[in-house]
Amino acid sequence: MSSELTRALVSALDKKRVLTKASELLCYAYDATAGDEGRAPDVVVLPASTDEVARVVRIARDAGVPVYPRGAGTSLSGGAVPARGGIVLSTSQMDAVLELDPANQCAVVQPGVVIQRLNDLAAEHGLLYPPDPGSVAVATMGGSIAECAGGLRGLKYGVTKHYVTGLEVVIADGQVVRLGGKSTKNVTGYDLVGLFVGSEGTLGVITEATVRLVPAPEARATMTAAFARSGDASHTVAAIVAGNVVPATLEYIDATTLRLVEEYLHAGLPVDAAALLLIEVDGPPEAVAREAEFVERVCREHGAAVERAADDEARERLWAARRAAYPALARQSRGTIVEDATVPRSRVPEMLSAIEDIARRYDLTIATVGHAGDGNLHPTVLVDPDDAELMERAHSAVAEIFRAALDLGGTLSGEHGIGSAKAPYLVWALGEGGLDLTRRIKAALDPQGILNPGKFTA
Prior knowledge:
15 helices, 5-stranded antiparallel beta sheet, Uridine Diphospho-n-acetylenolpyruvylglucosamine Reductase, domain 2, Uridine Diphospho-n-acetylenolpyruvylglucosamine Reductase, domain 3, 21% strand, Alpha-Beta Plaits, 458 residues
């Protein structure tokens, strides 16, 4: 990239917020996706306002240089990786909660706001922002909206797209557009807010978001159900949902993950179990008592040993263990490939069987955790990125996992997005017609192809 372009960026921002040193740039060459070799950008910019974002995008447009919007870099699909050099635009400096509006049960935030911080502020008003990705303590609102993140509460509460009612976006020509707002009902024209949610930075840079909040539940009951056979656990998931009880969370943890998490955290998990369900019901106290009793009964009918968390401290210990799954797995090998193939919830037992079969045939360790209640599983392949033969087997196995999910009526991703990692398989899910339509939308909004190129629309 030319020195003239760098000078233009310094003029648009200031020298301190334009990074050009090789050691600084290397930090932005990767996200949390395993097996991606990464490429350092030519420059990183740290705008502090919408106007500065627009200036950067206009400079990039005039020069024909790629721009890669970036939040905290917790993407697991290569969504934040600068595939072709150019400018990484980090929104980390735009981290203000602009408004928390209890009367309308919503908040207006800048993209750099960490999700947990928003929830801490909402809790002061008895409110909750339900999307709850595993990286909630560091993931930012802009990135989670761009990826349409889900999380542990997805079964009952849905995912990010169900909570975004308004956006401010800088599009590829540098124009600032405002879409939607605080109204909970809005069918005025095309759903342009929905178009940008989950677009992975390929259509615009999110600079502000209005999101719905909901009343925090009055009561909760959290329990574990340990199974001697993994198949019993997966069938229990189907039985609970079939009973018209919708837990806030219904998580599946396999034996490999249980053992490694216990070694990591010493949380008191039953390491002799073949699988564990971690379940929470919430709502009014009477409903919680009734639903918890039903869930426990179904689990025992399927052979589980059930334990209920006695207090908030025990509950937090269980959720800390669930969130520690990926760090615990990462300690076991030099790399992990974390996927999120998703199937209809009734097909979860078949999908788990397919993953176990694929692991055997390719002689791989594949640990599976996931939001089993909504069919969103995270098979995690333990790998060594320097072992070419192992990586080849791993990628072949991942392709088979995607194919199995699609054959069961599922999809490639429930919450991690497509990015660059899953782009080769997108046609399997969308077909040629759907892929062509996706590319036509991209071409209409970004004719130069400067926004996050090399991702699913490439």
